[in-house]
């Protein structure tokens, strides 16, 4: 995945004119967790109104507590897929283990590997064999070298459709959830030909600052941003504290596009 091996930036074609990588600014938005049919409908409507082509939403959720909401599973994914498919929206959702890949495959446009699975080498090997794009998040305490080597697991198994994602790293600072390491963006872009995107929602973990950090990500050179939005963030089943409402989301989309034009 090194620039030394391939100079030309990798572009990932999700079909129907949706391309991720150099020359594009990709916006991926949606709830932390898929919660209901109604919720998906409302998010889809919001995304369509703002020409956003990729919806995020977890159906298998890695939660710190086993008693927290852990996602709607495959049935939720099928519903998610049906509603997005009929509206021309692509799906990104997290896969947590190897055994889920085959069942999820027909319903997913991009597999997300979460921070907690960033060095699950069996999962990375298996995704290398699946011919689907993979968004690989940086580990909670992962170095950039570890992220790059994790991506090599997927790449060396034959799947070159990889997107790297900076989502914040753990530090001693506790004024916010994580430290969004925007240094990673230009450094990764120099080291690899893969697209690099930023997740400001998990990166800072507080909804009031998601816009500022998203705009900073654009200016740092990110190929896109993935963030959490929900019709009523305070009622979200997970990560409501870092989730923006549709009004905030609309403003964010407009401002990111403007910033990208200026970059
Ligand atoms: C998520 O995207 O909701 C998520 C769990 O992200 P991360 O793996 O970065 O914590
Ligand atoms: Mn989340």
Automatic annotation (TrEMBL):
Keyword Methyltransferase in record: no
Domain of life assignment: Bacteria
Gene Ontology biological process terms, A to Z: aromatic amino acid family biosynthetic process
GO molecular function (one): 3-deoxy-7-phosphoheptulonate synthase activity
E.C. designation(s): 2.5.1.54
Limits of the DAHP synthetase I/KDSA domain: 12-253
EC class (word): transferase
Keyword line: Transferase
TM stretches of this protein: none
The protein's name: 3-deoxy-7-phosphoheptulonate synthase
Shown chain mapped onto the complete sequence: 71 to 333 of 336
């Amino acid at each position: 995945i090194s620039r030394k091996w391939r100079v030309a930036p990798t572009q990932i074609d999700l079909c129907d004119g949706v391309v991720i990588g150099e020359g594009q600014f990709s916006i991926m938005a949606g709830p932390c967790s898929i919660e209901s049919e109604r919720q998906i409908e409302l998010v889809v409507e919001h995304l369509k109104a703002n020409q956003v082509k990729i919806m995020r939403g977890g159906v298998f959720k890695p939660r710190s507590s086993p008693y927290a909401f852990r996602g709607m599973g495959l049935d939720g994914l099928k519903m998610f897929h049906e509603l997005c498919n009929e509206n021309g929206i692509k799906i990104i959702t997290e896969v947590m283990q190897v055994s889920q890949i085959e069942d999820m495959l027909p319903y997913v446009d991009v597999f997300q590997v979460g921070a907690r699975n960033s060095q699950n080498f069996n999962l990375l090997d298996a995704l290398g064999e699946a011919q689907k794009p993979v968004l690989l998040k940086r580990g909670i305490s992962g170095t950039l070298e570890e992220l790059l080597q994790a991506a090599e697991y997927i790449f060396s198994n034959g799947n070159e459709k990889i997107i790297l994602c900076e989502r914040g790293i753990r530090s001693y600072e506790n004024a916010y959830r994580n430290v969004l390491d925007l240094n990673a963006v230009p450094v990764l872009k120099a080291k690899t030909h893969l697209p690099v995107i930023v997740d400001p929602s998990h990166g800072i973990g507080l909804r009031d600052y998601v816009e500022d950090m998203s705009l900073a990500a654009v200016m740092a050179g990110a190929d896109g941003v993935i963030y959490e939005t929900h019709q009523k963030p305070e009622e979200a089943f997970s990560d409501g504290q870092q989730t923006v409402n549709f009004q905030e989301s609309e403003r964010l989309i407009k401002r990111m596009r403007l910033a990208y034009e200026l970059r």
